[in-house]
Amino acid sequence: MRKTIALSIVLIIAIIAMAIKYFSALSVHSNNVSKALKNIPADAAFILNFNNDQSFYEIFKDFELFDAIVGEQRSDEINQLQQALLRQPDFDEAIADENIFISIHPNKTNSVDFLYSINLNEGLTLSEIEEALGRNRDISSEKNSETGIYTISIKSLKKPFFMHIEAGVATGSFSQELLNRSIKKGITRIDSKFVEEIDYAVTHNQNSPVNIFINHNRSGDFIGQYTQNVPNGALTLITRVKGTSSLSMNYKSDALMFNGISKIDSTTPTYLGLFLNQQPVKNNLKQVMPKNLSYFICFGISNYNEFEEKLHHFFERRKELSKLRQQLTSVQEKTGVDLDKELKPFLADEFAVLETEGRERLAIVKVKNGREVKLTLEQISEMRDDMIGRLNHSNLFYYYLGDPLKQFSRPYFAIVDNYLVLANSTSVITNYINTYGSEKLLVNTPEFAEHNQFIANQSNIFYFINNKNAQRLIRNSLRPQYSEAFKSGSYGLKDFYGLSYQWSSDDGHFFTNLYANYKSSGAHKLTEVWKKTLSNNIAIKPQLVELEGKKILLLQDKRHAIYAISPTGEKLWETSVNAQVLGNFQIVDDKNIIFNTTRELCKFDSQGKMIDGFPVKLPYNASHGLSSISNSIYIPAVNVIMRFDKNGRVLPNWNHTLSSKILYNLETAKIGNAHVIAAGTETGTFYFYDEFGDLLTKAEVGATQFRNSIFLESGDSPENSRIVTIDTAGTIIFISMKGSVTKKQIAEFKGAYSFAYVNVVGDDKPEFVYLNKYSLSILSTDGTPLAINSFNSKSSKELRLFKKNNYSWICGVEEKSTKELYLFNEDGNLSKGFPVKGDGYFLAGPINNNNKQSYLFSGIGNSLGLYKF
Question: Please, is 370 exposed, middle or buried when counting C-beta atoms within 10 Å of its C-beta (0-12, 13-18, 19+)?
């Protein structure tokens, strides 16, 4: 199957994004849709529509995907056009709440031009528009008295914009030739049926931020502007389709998502039309696609007899049916094998063609009984070994399945479980058998697992492209000036993972889904607020605390000096201690700072001076940082809990010895009227104590090991309070304060991983957060995936949680090998501007409780910086 079909889908996405970017500068609400469409020439391949209201700008102001596709230079050009002309008050009022349409047309330079059509608000006269142009100091305009076209020159741009206004409609373009054609009398324009489709969709899809309309009759001309050669092979499955598609956008900050209706012209037979009125089929073949896949096209047939009847009519129109049937007759005469009885009944409901990164092409046909199919094919083939044979006759699978199999005229074959694999060489089949046997499959990659969450699980036609693996395909098929954009740093096209395009038959038309997800490259730089140089390199993560009603930043360097720095970057004080601080700083009495090292408990006043009586030597070496509640201080020391009052005195009835090493810090909370201290151990024993040292509950999970922190979910009573953690086997453990233990297995994670039970997605409920070296997964408590983010590097990573407010956290991942921080927003997507470099000394979140702006403190060497994000 020719691979250029994949490129057409990529190009469609690129043009969608480019045009939307242009018209986040414009945007529309008029019931008279046809009025704005009246000047669009018939060669329009795509038409986009959206509404010029404030909500549109709010949604798309930080939509990184458009800039990624358009490129830095074009993006800057668009922004200048927007500021100099389109967002000026006079013009903004003229198109407020009006429908805007952008049509895309091929030109003579192997590229495309945009034509913008906008209804103007009623009551606005031509003279008022000309006066507004004259008042705008950022532009100069000149009107051609013969054509009525305004040439608008924007001082900051090197090319003019052309505009024509007539009968309440403004039409504009950067192409004078296209604009001239659009207003010329007698030219062919988009047909009335297409206008009706657009009118209906605009009226009924008012909740969609963007609508796109595809004129399939012209899509071949559009695609031809970008490819090196005349489209052929599999590409014709798209370019030969006649009809229209109306798709609506679903907003997602890190993806392009469209769905809607595709209506094909049944009077012009095409291969895709054979699947009309079939029922959608579950997409199971994606489970056996190789990991190094470049693209696949999968087809689903619910009723083969109906499909076969249409396929035979299709062949008959091509005058091929008689010759193909003669081939089957010849097979039966020579071998005695009746393929209609011995092969056709075993064909299942899916088949696919695909190409790998190394340009290996093959087909996979799902069969009902692999053993029976192999026995049949062996009788009409020459077997090369026990598994691989070659058919002695041509075009057999083309006869049964049609155009996608035509490229495998006399293929080699093998049966792998209940899958028939076809290729034009034995090496391709051998490589696939090895891939299948070693489970090096696409579905096992975290990148595809993330992509797969947002696509339909059934369809009749399913295209998938892996952008990274398709780079050779892109380079060999696109014209050089366009293929360069897929690796240029000025664009973000290389940061798209993949694209899925699915067609599902639905009551005489196709329901269409299009999805392309994006991985931010972090190319957008954070805004630096200030940078501070310390005496020595930073040694611990910064911490923001509130002291005497003011926020201050506390951190320590490698020579054990502790610094207090204001949010504005001013150093308030610097004090040295004897060792490195363990865990967090805590505030007592609103004015004093307490913390511990391995051997000492320390207490500072607000000016950084050690309080009298401190430091206090610990009876045991501390293993982690302290926790405090109700003026008491608790410090873990391997398998012992030490307790002190706020003056550093050891309190009686403590120094409890636990069954094994304590898991990280102790957790404290007020539950009902009691102050509770919770602890867990590596061997699975969990404890609840009251503040006086009395054991409230002890629960032993046993027969497993624990390596992750515990999380205390505190309710208003012991009955609804519990410890939540996870064992090394990936089982989530819930230990009630009443002593009951429940277990839950919601996902399977291989290798070492980190776990958290916190609220990170914006509501008030906690989620399960998993991190391993491959991916970060956020799941709801019922196991539903909310977000999955995969990583290119497979090196060690650390889960970082930054407190946002009293009930929610910001989720981050620190890449150890590259010293980078990935920060994720409430949608679970990578925040704009990330990852960022540092030495692992990061702190993120708002500085003030009422401040919605988030900041990042980042330490590199002896330098500490504050950045907005």
Answer: middle
pLDDT digits (tens, 9 = 90+) for 299-334: 999 999 999 999 999 999 999 999 999 999 999 999
- How far CA 753 is from CA of 647, 702, 727, 796, in Å, comes to 39, 20, 10, 10
Place of tokens 């019931």: 31
d(CA 405, CA 403): 5
Asked if 682 and 660 touch (Cβ cutoff 8 Å), the reply is: yes
Burial of residue 657 (number of CB atoms within 10 Å: 0-12, 13-18, 19+): exposed
pLDDT at 816 over 90: no
More confident residue, 709 or 226: 709
State the average pLDDT for the chain. 84
- Rounded to an integer, what distance in angstroms lies between the CA atom of residue 798 and that of residue 821? 9
The secondary structure of residue 525, as a DSSP letter, is P
* Nearest to 293, CA basis, from 463, 422, 517: 463
Confidence check: pLDDT of 765 > 50: yes
Q: Which residue has the tokens 């990148």?
A: 447
Q: What digits encode the pLDDT tens for the residues 698-737?
A: 999 976 889 999 999 998 899 999 999 999 888 999 999 9
- CA-wise closest residue to 562 among 590, 516, 620, 602: 602
The angle subtended at Cα 300 by Cα 296 and Cα 304, nearest 5°, is 140
Task: List Cα–Cα distances, 423 to 276, 324, 349, 426, 431, in angstroms.
Answer: 28, 20, 20, 7, 11
DSSP string across 610-655: BPTT-SEE-SS--SS--EEETTEEEEEETTEEEEEETTSPBPSS--
Residue partners of 323: CB distance under 8 A and separation at least 6: none
What is the C-alpha separation between 42 and 32, in angstroms, rounded?
20
Q: Tokens 């990991």, residue?
A: 291
CA distances from 645 to 597, 609, 689 (A): 17, 19, 16
> Which tokens go with 172?
């504009």
- Alpha-carbon dihedral angle through residues 333, 337, 338, 340, given to the nearest 10 degrees: -130
Q: Does the predicted model carry a pTM greater than 0.70?
A: no
Question: CA dist 36 to 28, 617, 688, Å?
Answer: 11, 81, 70
Give the Å distances, CA to CA, from 225 to 7, 106, 189, 249, 777: 12, 7, 21, 25, 41
- The string of DSSP codes covering 305-334 is HHHHHHHHHHHHHTT-HHHHHHHHHHHHHH
CA 592 – CA 595 distance, rounded (Å): 10
**Does residue 783 or residue 69 have the better pLDDT?**
783
Query: What are residue 458's DSSP bridge partners?
Result: 282
Residue 677 burial (CB count, 10 A): 24
Cis status, amide bond into 785, omega within 30 of 0: no
* Separation between Cα atoms, residue 595 and residue 603, nearest integer Å: 7
